[in-house]
Every structure is written in structure tokens, then in C-alpha cells.
Give the backbone structure.
Amino acid sequence: MQNLLIRFLEIALFGLVFAGIYWVVGFFCKSTFGFEIRSERGYTIAVFAGCISRIIIVKFLSGQY
């Protein structure tokens, strides 16, 4: 049970990091070029990509790919 909780927290952390990166890129585009790229759909995709990237990075670094 503890391993499952740690895995969930790691996946959530990666999702939050990707959402933060998406926010920073969106802020840069809005302040520099004047157009908005941030939306609810974009945040959902960013969090999902963060969750998937955590799985891919772990498998890649452990030599499974």
C-alpha cells in the first residue's frame, strides 16, 4: 500500500511539473506575442503528458526500451 502511495505521488508531481511548464510557456507567449495558449484542455493534456512521461522515463532509464 505504501508503494502505491509513493508511485501516485511521483506521478502527481510529474503532472504538476508539466502543468507548471505549460503555465510558464503560456505566460511567455501572452506577455511577448500577445496571444493566449493556456486553456483547460491544454492543462489536461499537460498533466496527462506528465503522467505518461514519468512512466516512459523510468522504463527508458532502467533499460527496458
